Amino acid sequence: MPRPTRALALQTLLALALAALAYGAFANASDKLARQGIVAGFGFLGRAAGFDISQRLIPYAAATSTYLDAFCVGLLNTLLVSGLAIVLASAIGFVVGIARLSPNWLARTLAATYVEALRNLPLLLQLLVWYVAVRVALPEARDPAAWGGAYLSQRGLVLPRPEFLGAAWLVPLAFATGLLGAFAWGRHVTRRVAAGGEPGPVLLPGLALGLGLPALASAGLALAGRPVAFAWPVPGPYGPEGGLPVLPEFAALLLGLSTYTAAFIAEIVRAGLASVARGQGEAAAALGLSRARTLRLVTIPQAMRVIVPPLTSQYLNITKNSSLAVLIGYPDLVHVVMGTVLNQTNQAVEVVGLTMAVYLTLSLGLAALMNAYNRRVAPVTR
Amino acid sequence: MRSIPTALLGALLAVPALAQGTPVHDTLTGVKARGHLVCGVSGGVAGFSMPDGQGHWHGLDVDFCRALAAAIFDDPEKVRFIPQSSAARFTALQSGEIDVLARNTTWTLSRDTAAMNFPVITFFDGQGFLVRKSLNVTQVKQLDRATICLQQGTTTELNTADWFRTRGLSYQVVTFANSEQTLGAYESGRCDAYSTDKSSLYGERLKTAHPEEHVILDEAISKEPFAPGVRQGDDAWRDLVAWTHYAMVDAEEAGIGQANVDEQRQKTLSPDVKRLLGLEGRYGRGLGLTDDWAYRIVHHVGNYGDAFSRNLGEATPLKIPRGLNALWTRGGLQYGPPIR
Description:
- Chain A has two domains: about 5-35; about 40-135 and about 245-380, MetI-like (MetI-like fold).
- Chain A is globular.
- The model of chain A has no long low-confidence stretch (mean pLDDT about 90).
- Chain A contains eleven helices and eight strands.
- Chain A is of the alpha+beta class.
- In chain A, strand 6 (about 235) and strand 7 (about 240) form a beta hairpin.
- By secondary structure, chain B is α/β, with parallel strands linked by helices.
- Chain B has two domains: about 5-125 and about 225-330, D-Maltodextrin-Binding Protein, domain 2; about 125-220, D-Maltodextrin-Binding Protein, domain 2.
- In chain B, the strands form four sheets. Chain B has a five-stranded mixed sheet, sandwiched between helices. Chain B has a three-stranded parallel sheet with strand order 4-1-5. In chain B, strands 2-3 form a two-stranded antiparallel ribbon.
- Chain B starts with a helix and ends in a 29-residue tail after the last helix.
- The interface of A and B includes residues 28 and 38 of A.
């Protein structure tokens, strides 16, 4: 047989075998499900859930909410913890990564110790330390530590909850405006410098806009006699009630995920900074730029093209590792849907499929975002 | 209670041969021909079924199977115990892999109509609450606004939500994937109460560092009647399983136990006891057994009270009170129809 024909025949055979295997798995599963009296399909999502969930970002009640609502609660909890962990891990990671290259011996050694310790211990173990060891050291729920209207105990942290009702919406609005303004100012200064203009301060005006505007708004509201109201936590028979509770499961997962992933991000940042040619820093110093300015204006922008691709995979890891929530009882997507919904409905195939589809969508979406950002920071190739 | 892996396996990988096995219509004949009984148990619940260091099985469910073997073979050792996961247990019974399922299984309408028959309730259980003594809580309703630890994917989650809601009370829930995590969270102060079947709570309490600091509330918020399961369509076998339990209850009511059954057999004058022990009448024949079937049960295994105190009672570490499982003459629900 001539080579192309043989290759074609082999590939056809392989494709047929794969198709047969897939069909066999499908037929077997539908046959077993039918025999167990399980109706395939997603109709079960509309039925009443009947169980409670400890942390809910949307209104949810056992009696009236459906399995679809429970799914959304779990998904939002996953997004919340992953999103915050990405921000926190990046912040810690950048600081530690830069500190590893610091001329200061203490900063360098502390950063190296942090990275080596956290990177080399299993995440599961670190989560258990945060959830069990740290929590046990806190005061009991009926005798919490109180500080400025907030309470800390083994049941977590309870904060006063600002209630943005009516005119009080001005405060978050002012905050958002301030943030946008700070960004716009930053871009303006960058453009001016690029066009050969004078550099100007960025950090101080940015802070003033971001924090000053909401402060001004709250002060204005207070003067107008309509201050922002707070729902204060109050002591109850079994511990503090009301307010804004931060569950220990959430705190442990957020801290565990952030500090662990930050160690990897620090190494990525260090590698990125080290990849920038030495001459760049020396040239900046020769021009009289301070070390901080050299980092911010010369080294980091060039390092980003090396940092972003591996950083993307760390962000994906955070999203996927957030499912370790099941081990400490945080109601993320896997905990709620694979743990409770699957067992209450027995719709194993649908539930597992749905969960996989969600993680795939999240990961691909995040990767697409990061790739778009990477194209922006990548150098213009000549 | 079900677990994720087993539910998945059950749904996806159930071996076709098991699901298709033809029902055996005459279980007793099959058991006699085989020479031993095959009994499905949970295999890991203290007081109900658990093997000891030497591989010898103990527990209330185990003793029930031994009583059945004693009645058939006059030998309580002619039983083979096969641990069953909660997901696979019904398939194992339907396929004929086991003759009887004695696995703290709650009798519900849907299981009765779809999967099997439940001849008799051997243990009355309900969902209970474990709390610290220092809370001074005696009733479930005092747990209004408390935090409760539960194992997820169980009926416990649903019962608790229903109970608190219908009474206009509130609670905070924290759920975990398995009982070790749930108990750990409760013990470390994350929750005020830990809720699951009362019979399991006694075992769970023993696992805490200081069992004497915790108390199980008397109240139960759900009905969990544990019953042995048999295949549908085999009335003779169903009768035999039911009467094995009734004989143990009737013996306790008549004051006949393992300690005095031989003596009583010699000198009793009571016609009830004579019928029970096969000295009068021919009651064993109807069950397909010899007339001394009930004597064999009491002689080898004891009456219901003997089995209870040996496996669950005050003399054991579990210290489960008789409660609903006391005889009807003592305010409980255990009631055996007359043997005549």
